[in-house]
Amino acid sequence: MEGYISETVALFRQMAIFQGLDDAQLAELESFFQRAKVQKGDLIVEEGSPGDYFYIIYSGRLLVWHATPNGREEVATLIRGDYFGEEALLFGQPRLASVSALEESELLLVDQEKFGAMLSLYPSLRISFTATAESRHLAEKEHFDWLGNDEAIYLITRKHELFLWRSLILPIFIVILGIPLAVWGMMMTSVFLQHVLLVLGGLFIGGGVLWGIWNWIDWGNDYYIITNQRVVWLENVIGIYSSRREAPLTTILTVNKLTTQIGRIFNYGTIDVRTFTGAIVMRNMANPDLFEAFLRGHRERAQKRTLEQERQSMRDALRTRLLMQESGKTPVGNQPSPKPAMPLRAAPMLAQDRKKAFKEMINTFFMMRYESQGVITYRKHWLVLIRKTLQPSLAILALIAFTIYLIYRIGIQHEGFLLSGLTWTFLLVMGYIAVGLWWLYHYLDWSNDIYQLTPEQILDIEKKPLGREDKKTASLDSILSVEHDRKGILRLLFNYGDVIINVGQTQFTFDGVSNPDQVHQDIRAHMEARARKKRERELAQERERMMEWLSVYHEEEKNLRQSSNGD
Prior knowledge:
- The protein is α+β, with helices and mostly antiparallel strands and 567 residues long.
- Among the domains are: 2-122, Sandwich (Jelly Rolls), CATH 2.60.120; 162-220; 222-327, PH-domain like.
- 50% of the residues lie in helices and 25% in strands.
- It has 15 helices and 23 strands.
- A hairpin with a 2-residue loop joins strand 22 (496-503) and strand 23.
- The protein is globular, with a radius of gyration of 32 Å.
């Protein structure tokens, strides 16, 4: 019994929600729980049912899923140290998902009455449970498509609401300024001044409201996330920028919390996560203490889980090798390689694929960075687009001004102007088409010059509309160094510049990209991920060689034993 209590306290010490409690408090906390064993396939909670227990997984694996008309949708896999059920008990809501056992498992559970007593005894737990419950609800709402099949979200937070209100100060001031202008315009006797003031007041009010809505959506689009595999910073600017910076939990070296006096008063701060490839600096987040505690706790869990998985892989490989040796079968690694399959012809693009491609083109029309199917695409900064389209844009403005003049001259004053109204209409339509095609040509020239980063390589693609396409590629393994610069006051003000990648005797340059520091970090992170996979393959090969040595040793020991028995 003492051993079991010790194991339970050890488990609690690894859980982020219990950070800050000492061993005596954890031992007292353990007394609230009871144990229950479930078998593979058992349904533990059902979606839509009332909540009556809070659960912690002591051993085994559970599956979280939703019932659908076509069967069920798998949400996440829960393992030792994970927990569920707190949302139903905290907010009195029915279960949001079903949970069943993937294998024989042991659970620690506490009923609603004891759960309330536990929160009364340790009020800090309510903050942790509330944060995780809200995070799960937000994850269900957002449906992050980059999550892995066996990946579960533990915590989501945003920038502090103080920074939302700060971003709304100027839009609110503009709206307040527009109201007296509109009222003043309605009181004017001069028709001209009345129209001018009403238009100005309407522009101020409408512009301020739209700006405020933009800032509110922009604030709500940025997330700081901890999963069971990584820490993620999502940053989105509608129609312009989409970024995801992440670091696997096992690669994190240090976690630092930075706060100011005002930040400690209002409970916001900055979390600086350092890895081998650089830093992820998550600024002005709400409740940084909780985020830091969760991140540290789950980093330790991930590192221990990695070691356990490595040991288990060695055990499984050795057991498989010995069993195959006993049965006289050839080990998998020594079996002849199958003949390569015939290459498949590329299937023609279906209407559904074309629709998806068109939708992606619209969604990324002005975006300088976006990600699709694991490929990050960068375009040049929007200032480069403005420079390329400056002449056709000025021509469009001139056409609009001339159109307004013609409407005033012919339509309002009913005066002729060199040509008939129908002729002017035809000429204007042709002019708009010509200038629009001119603008579109320069937009496509900007849009088609892209830089891409995949898990295996970098690509530099330059394509002239109706012209030739130049493509350069390089493997991530061949990159010698990466650097970036922002030369000039304009580039410093608008945060764009060049990223220089040295590949052997060749140099790749990502010219004029937005936020070159992040592009640099993205490349470094992909290089580290590829190097990590390479190390994993090398470890697997080393493990295979070790298994070969052990199997030979086992065989020789068996032969020697048989020889000695025969003598």
